[in-house]
Amino acid sequence: xxxxxxxxGVVTAAVLVIGDEILSGRTxxxxxxxxxxxxxxxxxxxxxxxxxxxxEEEIVAAxxxxxxxxxxxxxxxxxxxxxxxxxADAIAKAFEVDIDVDPRAVALLKQRIPExxxxxxxxxxxxxxxxxxxxxxxxxxxxxxSIGNVHVMAGVxxxxxxxxxxxxxRLAKGTRIASRSIEAGLKEGDFATxxxxxxxxxxxxAIGSYPSFDASKGFATTLVLRARSEPxxxxxxxxxxxxxxxxxxxxxx
Amino acid sequence: xxxxxxxxGVVTAAVLVIGDEILSGRTxxxxxxxxxxxxxxxxxxxxxxxxxxxxEEEIVAAxxxxxxxxxxxxxxxxxxxxxxxxxADAIAKAFEVDIDVDPRAVALLKQRIPExxxxxxxxxxxxxxxxxxxxxxxxxxxxxxSIGNVHVMAGVxxxxxxxxxxxxxRLAKGTRIASRSIEAGLKEGDFATxxxxxxxxxxxxAIGSYPSFDASKGFATTLVLRARSEPxxxxxxxxxxxxxxxxxxxxxx
Lengths: 253, 253
Hints:
By secondary structure, chain A is an alpha/beta fold.
């Protein structure tokens, strides 16, 4: 697959979460975190996430914006049998292709649903845009699909996970980013300037500083270093640890 | 405030989460769900969410896209003292205004940080774009800010919550959307066509169907009806409950 990025070994992705229930706060999304973690493990850089409502023009606009910018677009939600499940039709519109009941998808539904129960509503779950490749659903059979670089999956987390894992073998992947975490044991303001200097020395290592707050334990700061080169990561880690030791000694003095 | 929407009583919002750590999967976002829930309670319609990395041009582009479309934009993340905290500068760039250390913000920092510890790095947390209004931070003092319709808050959940609640009194709010939840006790495919007919009869009531799956309990479906008019909501709920009773009776027959 032709990547959209010029960097060697870099494969990028975006997630598009489709669903009023996430925006209303009724449902807490669990799919972004899953795809983020798995993408990192697979050497895919997740670069953007969007959440949009069950509104066709919003889905079409987001799909077209994202598929032009990233190597992969993963969508979740809106592929069930009810009137508010409009993702498949919106994707067909975004790609300007026809959509119809797909015999391959019907065959899968029949593995689970008795012939007499396969009504018009359930057949909606077999509507696949022309040119789509099915994504297997080992949990409840109704498939997702890939079209171009867009991978359309269910919103129910257990089903989304199964679909994502079914999809993994055919995804283009890049060089995995390695990372190291360092507990700073200091407040960010104590080392921020020195850390900034190290970041300038290591432009190829992404250095993040993540404060957290716990009512019982107070503030803590974790530094995360990420890079494609292990030797550079090791060198940067050494520089950060030496700097933290130096700052701690200065604060004790 | 002039709303961006023509509908009476409708106030819209978007959330922009800024942070590599969410996209890498290292940190699970908790702020989207908090703002989604609170917005719904306040009569603010959350219409879109985006997550972008700590990259200035990405933040600028997203802020400008969202602030033109929605009444409020809530951002989280990237306002600490380290080199990767670039949100305030990116917002200034998006609004094409200057940014500098703000004496009001410095005064707040001094409530917590001893004068000798107020180094260059910590003063970064007092950089506020020209024309910004501070958002109080009762947890750790370093403030957020509002500029135009964009409200810039911390990423650490406890601090973000404190900032959001400090902001609430000055937010424009709309008519609260009321909702009713109904446990269908049926599979979606059994009632989807009949539910679609009810949705057509009640275009002013948003009817969502949310399947869930639990390995021990199997599938369940919750129907959620949302509307600004209580009488219409009551009428739609009655229609849905009658339909479900009818479908259950048919399935038993």
